[in-house]
Sequence to fold (296 residues):
Amino acid sequence: MQPKLSIITVVYNDAAHIIETMDSVIHQTYSHIEYILIDGASSDGTTKRIESKILSLASITHRRESGDSLYLEARLDSNPNFSFKFLSERDGGIYDAMNKGIELATGEWCNFMNCGDRFFSPQSVSELFSAYEAHLALGGEAIAVLYGDTQIIYDAQHSKILHAAPNGRKNAHKYHHHFIHQSAFINTAVMKCYKYDTRFKIAGDTDFFTKVYNDGFRFWHSAVVVSAFNVEGVSGSLSWRMFREDLQIGMRYHRLFPLYHILRYVFWIIPRVLVRSAIPARFRNQARVLLGKKQH
Fold:
């Protein structure tokens, strides 16, 4: 029997993209899914769009409203093994919202497919777990984090496949996870034990993955392309907060990490951002496809 999966979408004021993300989950050929949507009390119609979408496809089994909070559960009419949980209320930021999703999760594995992103194909989840079942059948050990590759979308005409760090690469995730968060499925028991540190505003996922990796949990990579990660409109500008949060994480595991981190910014990240910014916008994404790295 297929393990039950909890797929979590966090959203705030993104009515333009929420249905595309929901459809990519609903149309997966993998049938045993608990779809959890966490909305931060959006004011742009996102909440109504989610509720209307669920009502058009599923039967409500539980509903609770209290003040500005709405919670409902529903079961897909066409598949009794596909269920919805929808919570809309104010939160303390993205990692607080993600932790709310973890608290509601009852599947064996959790995935975070946040609004604006989607699964690469309707077969992505089935292909990933078929590959994992084959790994176990050959005597492979149980894993805490399954991850695959990712399609990076720059705009409607430009995209590429970003290959994650393969199995067996020494210290692959010791200081930073070398895969896209949306392409990972995490053992729910591990997820509930650690959760995300809400003191981080950008690098909470990096903190989580490096923490569990350094605590001895096993990671496993499959060449399946799991998600499509949309960076359209993202400039790639430098972020002092990202620099500081990554530094804070790496310092826990190696005292010389600050030196490596500073040199990496000075000789790689800053020059790359400056060169990218100097390229005319009409050529920038083409250059990112042709010249950008192909492995995370």
In short: The longest helix spans residues 257-278.
